[in-house]
Amino acid sequence: MALKTREDYLKSLKAMRPNVYKFGKLIEDVTTDPATRRTVESHARAFDAAHDPEYADAFTAVSDFTGEKILRWNGMMDSLEDIVANSVFKRWMYRFTGTCNGGLCVGWNSQNVMWNVTALIDKDCGTNYQERLKKWIIGAQEKGLVVAGALTDAKGDRSMKPSQQPELDANVHIKEVRADGVVISGVKAMICGVAASNEIFLLPGSGYKEEDKAFALACVVPRDIEGLTIVETRRPSDGRELEEEGWDIPETAITQAYLIFEDCFVPNERVFMCQEFKYSGKVIEYFTANYRACIGACVAGQGDIMIGAAALMARTNGLAAGTFSGKMVDMAINNETTYAVGIGAMAVGKPGPGGMWVSDSLLAHTNKVHVATLPYETKRLCQDIGGGIVETGCFPSYKDFQDPKYGKKIESVVKASVRFSAESRARAARLSEWLTLGAGVPGCMHGGGSPDGAKLVVRAFTPVDKFAQMASKIAGITEEITEPEKKKK
């Protein structure tokens, strides 16, 4: 089985039904349209790496099912070595692109999570979900698919359950169960990498009770399934992603989208949970444990590029990068902290009920809190080193540099070091700006869930009473020190 190449990947996207919109415009070809071609380019670089002897070990694996060599993001994670490889892969992808590549991430995690959850459902309910999932995974491996993942629903009023929402489509749900499949409707929101993906793996957005069983759905659909409209949302780059030339933003990017499902039919062979609400919480538990462990590698990889961007700015400003070595060390420590805590979460994890690895929840959610804080300090340091040309937003555009009236003068004054061109300084400045202020900023705060949600998990897994008993023993306290009774209102 030959590994898919960049050319194969681009061809597969070109063959899909156009159903992606941005700014009210239907995108006919996601590989060439300026609104989406950069995220496609980001994902395509993974195919390049898989065929590069220097990186092939990180970007390929061996199929558990066929023994064939496959693209790593289509593989299973049934050992500590496999899930650590997930983090290694993610850090390299950020180093290659500077940004998120959701089609090589969430779908991969989803298939492994559902392998564990389908083992539970099949055992308790006599279903055959895991066999369906196995057939789909083998097909994905053979085709070398890029698979986005969709958990987050639009949600609606947060004080109401999904079934209580005045707009039921605020959450993706099953409208009808047929003998040959299900009909689904609803909206998944802020989903990464969809425009660059072949398929989308849908998971329940929360743990549900019986009254919300229609929302307990796990399935995988082609990105161009009939009834699905994809609306790419705007990133904070002032529309510069639509520029066809110049250096105002890099050639790589991430896109996020709203997925509007309207009476989409999903055949049984693509359905892996259908109203089994009791297991929806397990999906969230397993998914967040692995995702929040691995995301530490994502922000570390982008942090590596921020160190590099800061060094470029120092040099094009006329200074040695070593002038800022103390700040760069602080940046590196931030990077290694999120990376290491994530690896630690994996190391103390264990196989789940289906044999796929599940990271330790306490450490994984602790890592999420670090991911929501440390990268912002790294960004601040990158801006600090780069100077006002990076951070103030007061920097001429590529088109200004080309203007026949004043472009040459702007170019002459933007040039700083006698050793380097004005264009090199401009490119370095725009990269730092993009990484720290613009569209290159990944979802550090809320990507993969909120830090407040992570803190709730940390709180639940921290045995305060047990620690208090241990402390009492060391202190020689013989009486029981308990919490005061709650005052009656």
Extended strand count = 14
Q: How much beta, percentage-wise?
A: 5-15%
| Sequence stretches where pLDDT stays below 50 over 5 or more residues | none
How many domain units?
2
The CATH architecture designation of the largest domain is Beta Barrel
Organism: Pelotomaculum propionicicum
GO molecular function: 4-hydroxybutanoyl-CoA dehydratase activity; isomerase activity; oxidoreductase activity, acting on the CH-CH group of donors
Pfam families: HpaB, HpaB_N
Domain HpaB/PvcC/4-BUDH C-terminal: 281-476
Structural summary, described in words:
The chain has helices at 6-14, 37-50, 56-59, 80-97, 106-125, 129-143, 280-316, 325-347, 361-371, 374-386, 388-391, 398-402, 407-414, 422-436, 451-461, 464-475, and strands at 20-22, 25-27, 60-62, 69-71, 147-150, 173-178, 181-192, 199-202, 217-222, 228-232, 256-267, 271-274, 350-351, 357-358. With 489 residues, it is α+β, with helices and mostly antiparallel strands. It folds into two domains: 6-280, Beta Barrel (Butyryl-CoA Dehydrogenase, subunit A, domain 2); 282-461, Butyryl-CoA Dehydrogenase, subunit A, domain 3, CATH 1.20.140.10. The strands form four sheets. The protein has a six-stranded mixed beta sheet, with no helix packed on it. A hairpin with a 5-residue loop joins strand 13 and strand 14. Helix 7 (280-316) packs antiparallel against helix 8 (325-347) and helix 13 (407-414) crosses helix 14 (422-436).
